[in-house]
């Protein structure tokens, strides 16, 4: 029977001493650890001098963090193979944390000292150390017991290994039927190792409930006008594995005892740096415990990246089809029970604002996830989110960018698009925004670690961070230029923080209950009537496949005989922004069959495209081709850019069989006649490519601006009493007459 150790550092040291005492007096024939990959994970800063370098790096499928700047990306190296992949591809890097296991042990030590010195902290719960999985459910039960009319435990589903996806719903009269109030939704721990992302939402639950109990006017107002739903651990299997098998593990569990490792106590980080969920075999469930019992290098190879598994443009740039990749998108959109449960929650409530918490990099990220000039499945640029800017009735801008700015002023983070560091598809907020129109953000909490010493968690919540910890990257302004441009607004760097993430969360909740940034449907109906709102539609996956989606929510009419239903707009942003114009035949065209680039070199090919007459748009598409010798081209390494007067005006840098970019001219005003350069950046590719560029005019609106309606129904005593289509836009209030007949 193998010896399994999960131990504190003290116990480990004792065992190490014992192990050495038991070693044979004669030297072993080889190093006792020679059979074991001695590599411990490292956090390294990879130099990427161009954005394309960054994409090329991401294409390697390594464990890339969100911590990146103009010329670097931080990457976790889990094995010698990871390290070799970097070196082989000619990347250079600096080591930031040379031994993440040692850092893990150091953190355990620091946390023990911190807890010993601080029996109670400034957190709403007073906690002084990280929770374990069971703490969340137990604490939710305690909160509900202490605040029974304001808090309710909910279960939204189960994980791959059958663990409960537990949440807490908070609002005045929370046990009464749905009454048309909007929902502010918050998630933590999609990624296993990102522990603070579960701590902060849980603290916010305490804050709301204790604030309400203490008569705090602002919190009482929020909980009267809306409900908060908090699911602190979205990936409980992975979280539990990371949290509890992150301590030192005896390698005898994976390497049979032999002369070479008599009683070896060697250390691995277990699952401390696991990212994904615990799916071992696509589509199959498995007993609880498999995730920690079956070895995988630092738990990273196994599982689906839940934050690539959602349906919004699933399967596109920044997501991998390779199950061993850190960003494996899974075999299908919503293939995982965890994302299915979240989808079900978002589709059955009117979630007007959402924050999904992650670590790290001090960022507030918002849709879209892909460079806006990338050609989307319908042939037009992906574009900016239609609600990037939105002017409310009072004349102020309250779009997603503006709310991001206000929150950033509180937590001191940088407010920017999801795509600014790297493309992603299939993420939580891209899906929820596309499917519902509810504002959605990813928070990347903390400056530099997945799970830093706990003291930092306290500071991130309260805002008492040290200056050093909240410094935004030197190039933050550069990274957010595009963000500043779109609403005609300015970007601000937040060198100082206000009320920390506590205050940022409160601002998000405030937006969630403000009808000015969503929609309101009002009317009269008999008390006790059940009203429903339903909308079916499709949104495309990245390959263009239509993917069906239904939102179906309900409420009960109260004694007053009137209702006010806070909803998302009836037309989804994706539909609203897609007008599917009819295009003319190609006007000017360029056709090039490319060269075979020398291997392991970055080669830019500049192709001149003379546009003889003005046009509405220019599209350039590059495709890898099979070389004459029959060698299949690496189809993943061509980027295509439209260059005017030496400036890249639009580019597509995704990984895939082809890349296509569409430019509609400055501010969409059309393309003027002149000489353009269509640049193909060809990476590491001995194959060739074909390039097409063409201009076209928009000759009509195939489908004029599309609208969607909610189907509103009234049920009296369980039978259908009336039904109407209801169209309502963002910021609009619609009065519905006679919905119950
Ligand atoms: O890559 C991710 O899933 C997130 N970063 S992390 O380091 N926590 O893994 C970032 C997701 C950003 N999503 C979009 N803005 N689309
Ligand atoms: Zn994450």
Topology:
Blueprint: H1 9-22, E1 42-47, H2 51-58, E2 63-69, E3 72-77, H3 80-88, E4 93-97, H4 100-117, H5 133-146, E5 151-158, E6 164-170, E7 183-187, H6 196-213, H7 217-225, E8 227-231, H8 236-244, H9 290-293, H10 337-348, E9 351-359, E10 363-366, H11 400-411, E11 414-417, H12 428-436, E12 439-445, H13 454-462, H14 476-479, H15 481-486, H16 500-513, E13 519-524, E14 530-540, E15 546-556, E16 562-567, H17 573-576, E17 581-583, E18 589-593, E19 602-611, E20 617-625, E21 638-644, E22 647-652, E23 658-663, E24 674-683, E25 688-696, E26 698-701, E27 710-716, E28 719-726, E29 733-736
Parallel strand pairs: 7-8, 7-9, 9-12, 10-11, 13-29
Antiparallel strand pairs: 1-3, 1-4, 2-3, 5-6, 6-8, 10-12, 13-16, 14-15, 14-27, 17-26, 18-25, 19-24, 20-23, 20-25, 21-22, 21-24, 27-28
Helix pairs in contact: 6-13, 11-16, 13-16
Bound molecules: N~2~-sulfamoyl-L-arginine, zinc ion
Q: Helical stretch count?
A: 17
N- to C-terminal distance: 72 Å
Average residue pLDDT: 83
Beta-strand level of the residues, as a percent range?
25-35%
Number of strands: 29
How helical, in percent, are the residues?
10-25%
Q: What Rg, in angstroms, do the CA atoms define?
A: 27 Å
Strand order, largest beta sheet: 5-6-8-7-9-12-10-11
| Uncertain spans | 1-37, 246-267, 470-485, 489-495, 626-636
Helix and strand content put the structural class at alpha+beta
How would you sum up the global shape?
A: globular
Largest sheet: 8 strands, mixed
């Amino acid at each position: 029977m193998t010896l399994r150790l999960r131990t504190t550092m003290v116990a480990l040291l004792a065992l190490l001493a014992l192990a050495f005492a038991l070693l044979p007096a004669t030297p072993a024939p080889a190093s006792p650890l020679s059979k074991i990959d001695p590599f411990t994970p490292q956090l390294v800063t990879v130099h990427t001098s161009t954005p394309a370098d960054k994409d090329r790096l991401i294409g390697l499928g390594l464990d890339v963090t969100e911590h990146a700047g103009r010329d670097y990306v931080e990457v976790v190296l889990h094995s010698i193979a990871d390290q070799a992949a970097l070196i082989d591809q000619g990347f250079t890097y600096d080591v930031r944390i040379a031994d993440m296991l040692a850092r893990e042990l150091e953190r355990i030590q620091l946390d023990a000292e911190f807890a010993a010195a601080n029996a109670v902290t400034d957190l709403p719960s007073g906690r002084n150390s990280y929770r374990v999985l069971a703490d969340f459910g137990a604490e939710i039960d305690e909160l509900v017991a202490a605040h029974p009319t304001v808090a309710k435990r909910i279960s939204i589903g189960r994980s791959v290994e059958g663990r409960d996806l537990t949440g807490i719903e908070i609002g005045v009269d929370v046990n009464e039927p749905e009454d048309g109030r909007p929902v502010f939704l918050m998630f933590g721990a999609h990624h296993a190792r990102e522990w603070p992302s579960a701590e902060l939402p849980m603290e916010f639950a305490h804050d709301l409930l204790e604030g309400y109990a203490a008569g705090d006017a602002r919190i009482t107002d929020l909980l009267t006008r809306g409900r908060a739903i908090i699911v602190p651990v979205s990936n409980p299997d992975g979280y539990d594995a990371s949290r509890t098998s992150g301590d030192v593990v005896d390698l005898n569990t994976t390497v049979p005892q032999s002369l070479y490792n008599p009683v070896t106590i060697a250390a691995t980080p277990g699952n401390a740096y696991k990212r994904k969920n615990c799916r071992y075999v696509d589509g199959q469930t498995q007993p609880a415990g498999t995730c920690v019992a079956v070895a995988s290098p630092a738990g990273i190879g196994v599982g689906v990246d839940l934050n690539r598994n959602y349906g919004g443009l699933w399967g596109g740039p920044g997501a991998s089809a390779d199950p061993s990749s850190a960003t494996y998108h899974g075999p299908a959109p919503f293939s995982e029970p965890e994302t299915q449960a979240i989808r079900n929650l978002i589709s059955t409530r009117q979630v007007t604002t959402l924050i999904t918490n992650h670590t790290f990099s001090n960022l507030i990220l918002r849709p879209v996830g892909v460079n806006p000039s990338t050609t989307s499945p319908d042939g037009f640029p992906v574009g900016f989110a239609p609600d990037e800017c939105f002017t409310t009735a009072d004349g102020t801008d309250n779009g997603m960018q503006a709310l991001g700015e206000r929150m950033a002023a509180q937590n001191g983070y940088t407010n920017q698009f999801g795509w600014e560091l790297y493309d992603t598809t299939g993420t939580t907020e891209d899906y929820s925004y596309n499917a519902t129109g509810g504002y959605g953000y990813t928070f990347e909490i903390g400056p530099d670690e997945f799970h830093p010493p706990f003291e930092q968690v306290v500071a991130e919540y309260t805002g008492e961070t040290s200056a050093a910890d909240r410094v935004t990257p030197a190039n933050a302004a550069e990274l957010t230029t595009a963000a500043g441009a779109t609403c005609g607004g300015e970007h601000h760097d937040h060198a100082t923080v206000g009320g920390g993430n506590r205050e940022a969360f409160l601002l998000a909740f405030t937006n969630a209950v403000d009808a000015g940034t969503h929609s309101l449907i009002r009317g009269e109906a008999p008390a006790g009537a059940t009203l429903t709102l339903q909308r079916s539609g499709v949104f495309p996956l990245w390959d263009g496949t239509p993917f069906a989606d239904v939102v179906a929510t309900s409420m009960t009419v109260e004694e007053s005989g009137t209702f006010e239903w806070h909803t998302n707009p009836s037309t989804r942003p994706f539909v609203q922004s897609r007008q599917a114009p009819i295009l003319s035949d190609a006007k000017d065209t360029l056709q090039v069959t490319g060269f075979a680039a020398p291997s392991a070199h970055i080669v830019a090919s500049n192709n001149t495209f003379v546009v003889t007459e003005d046009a509405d748009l220019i599209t350039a598409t590059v495709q890898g081709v099979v070389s004459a010798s029959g060698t299949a081209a690496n189809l993943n390494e061509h980027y295509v850019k439209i260059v005017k007067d030496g400036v890249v005006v639009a580019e597509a840098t995704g990984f895939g069989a082809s890349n296509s970019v569409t430019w509609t001219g400055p501010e969409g005003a059309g393309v003027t006649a002149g000489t353009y350069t269509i640049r193909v950046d060809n990476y590491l590719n001995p194959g060739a490519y074909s390039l097409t560029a063409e201009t076209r005019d928009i000759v009509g609106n195939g489908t004029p601006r599309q609208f969607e309606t909610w189907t509103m129904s009234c049920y009296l005593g369980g039978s259908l009493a009336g039904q109407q289509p209801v169209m309502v836009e963002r910021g609009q209030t619609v009065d519905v007459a006679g919905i119950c007949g």
